[in-house]
Design goal:
By secondary structure, the protein is mainly beta. About 0% of the residues lie in helices and about 55% in strands. It has a 17-stranded mixed beta sheet that branches. Strands 1, 19, 20, 21, 22, 23, 24, 25, 26, 27 and 28 form an eleven-stranded antiparallel beta sheet that branches. A hairpin with a 3-residue loop joins strand 26 and strand 27.
Amino acid sequence: MPNEFKMKQSGAALMAALAAAFPYVSHAAGAARVDFATGDVRALAADGRSRTLAKGAEIDSGEMIDTGSGRAQVRFNDGAQVSLAPQTQFRIDDYRFSGKTDGSEKGFFSLLKGAMRTITGLVGRSNRENYRVTTTVATIGIRGTEFSVTYGNSINVTTGEGSNEVCNAAGCLILNSGETAYVADNNTQPVMTDKKTEIPPPPVQEGQLPGFVAGDNTTSDGAPAGLSTGLVSGPGYSLAAVGVFNGSSGMALLDGNEGSYPTAATFSGGTLAVFTEGTASEVTFTQGTPVGMLTDGIIGWGRWIDGTFNDTCSTSCPLDDAGSMQHVHYVVGMPTPLADMNALVVANTTATYTLMGYTFPTAWDGSVFTFGTQPITGSLTANFGSYSVSGNLAVPMGANIYSTSWSGSIGGSSFGGSGSVTSSGSDCGCGCSAGILGFFAGSNAARAGLAYEFGGTDYGDIHGAAVFKK
C-alpha cells in the first residue's frame, strides 16, 4: 500500500521540563480571569450564588469553580495558569496579589474533586509558605513552577519542573521534575509511583485562530447539519499523523487520492473519531480521548490523547501491527484533486503558504511526556513545476525553541521532507533532525497540512501538526 510510516526507539530518558511561569499580568479587580471555558462551567460564591463562566469573566477570591461536564482554564493576576478537567471543583480560598512580591501576596486553594494542572506565577516565589493547594488527603506546597493533580478518594501528583512538597498527617514527600506521588488517604504517607498524572490542555489551546470552528457539521445522529463550515464524514480524505504508537515515535501518511486504497474519515463530537484505509479497512486509527479539532471547512487539525490502531493488510503497510496510541497529532482533509495538481505542474506554479493553525506540541523521551504551551511559527513554499516543497518551523518546547528549515518532494497531492534542527538551548550539538509528512487540500492546493517530528532534543521526540493557507 502506498503509505509512509516510520517508528524508532526514543533516546535516553531525560527529565521533562515545562516553561517557567508566564509573565506578569497587571492587577485586575478579581483574582483571575477565564481564558477559556466549554460546557456549563460555573462559579459558586460562599453565600451559594451561582453564575456561568465564559471567556473573560472575572473570578474572585472565595469563589469555587465547578466545571461540571465541561472544562476551563483561568489565569491569575500573578501570571499563574490553572487548567481544570471535567468534573472538577476548585476553590480560591485566599488569593492576594498587589502587583509585587512584598510578602503580602498569597495563594491558598482547595481541590475538592477532579483534576488540575497549573503553571505557577509570582505568588510563592519569594516565600513558598504563601502558596498551597489543599485536598482532604494531602496538601501540595510549591517548590517548582508546574504540577498536575488528580483527586478522587486518593491523589496523584506529578511535578513537571522544579520540585513540590506533598504532605499529610503521616509525613511529607519531595517530588523533583518528572516524579509522581500517590497518596491513599490522609493517614497514609505519600509514596513514589510510576503512574504519571496527565491533565490535557483545553481544546482552545490547539492553535485556535480567528475564523475557525470546532467540530464537524453532522448532527448527533450523523446527518448533515446544513450550511456549516465543518467536515462531513465520508470517503476520500487524506490524513497525516504523528505520535507515540506502542511506546515508540511514529509518523503516517494515508493518501485519499490513491484510488486503489480508498480512505474514509468519521467525524463525531467535534473531532476525527475514526480514519480507515483499504477496501476492508485494513488500516484503522480510532480516537480515545480527543483534545479537540478545529477546521476551516477544507482542512482540520487536532490531537488524540490516546486511542488504538490496527493494521491487518498483508502487504507493505504503515504499521504492520496493532496496539495503543498516545498523543497523536493529525491533519485531515480532502486532498487536492489530481487534475488540479497536474495543472499546477504544467503552469510551473510556485506558491507560498502562511501558517493558519497548529496543535501545541508534545514531546516523548521514552518515559515522560512534556507538553508545549506556546504558539509555533512557520511557513511553506511549493514549486509544483519541479515537484519540490520546502518550509520552516519554530517550535517552543520547555525552556528551548527548536527551529528547522526543511525541504522535500511532492508526489500526487502528498509531500514529505526532512531537515536539521537547531536549538536555542545547549542540546542539538550532536545533531537534531526533523521529519515532515503532509498533503495539499482543497481546489488548486489552497491548503497544506503536515505532521512533524523533531528527534534528538533534550525532551526526546517532539511531535505536532500544522496547517497553512496559500
